[in-house]
């Protein structure tokens, strides 16, 4: 799934229908800024809007997720391709979540070891620093803004 490709496709379909961003936004009950973000590839439409968006643009859900018009002859093939792309993206998110959790766990352990082991101040402070660094790194990995943009979408569509 290519967010930028999908955004361009939404823009092209909207223009073919002779709609402005504001008119499409009014039909969907959202702001024109949201439509602009979709079309610029900065965000994706909420899953709850898929049906009305597709109806407004005269496209299918498969076409929306593929970011292109799909001829009837290749519809089944393309549908499977789009679904597999969504599934692969969901798996990638799972791996990144696990890595983030591990980093956070190791960070917490390293943070508390000096207090438990009664280590010297230099060693203890070094472990606390590394622990905090790993804790922050784990948090950043788990809350990566790019992944958040896809996560809500993928979990609602696939999960």
Protein traits:
single chain, 2 domains, mainly alpha, 77% helix, Lambda_DNA-bd_dom_sf, 434 Repressor (Amino-terminal Domain), 159 residues, elongated
Describe it for me?
The structure is a single chain. This protein has 159 residues and is mostly helical. It folds into two domains: 3-66, 434 Repressor (Amino-terminal Domain) (Orthogonal Bundle); 75-157. 77% of the residues lie in helices and 0% in strands. The protein has helices spanning 3-16, 21-28, 32-39, 50-57, 61-66, 75-117, 121-142, 145-157. α2 packs across α3, α6 (75-117) packs antiparallel against α7 and α6 crosses α8 (145-157). The chain is elongated, with a radius of gyration of 22 Å. It starts with a helix and ends with a helix. The chain crosses the membrane at residues 93-116, 122-141.
Structural class by helix and strand composition: mainly alpha
Through-space gap between termini: 16 Å
One letter per element, helices H and strands E, the order comes to: HHHHHHHH
**Could you tell me the radius of gyration in angstroms?**
22 Å
Number of helices: 8
Number of domains: 2
Number of strands: 0
Structure, briefly:
This protein is mainly alpha-helical. It has eight helices and no strands.
Task: Please write out the topology.
Elements: H1 3-16, H2 21-28, H3 32-39, H4 50-57, H5 61-66, H6 75-117, H7 121-142, H8 145-157
Helix pairs in contact: 2-3, 6-7, 6-8
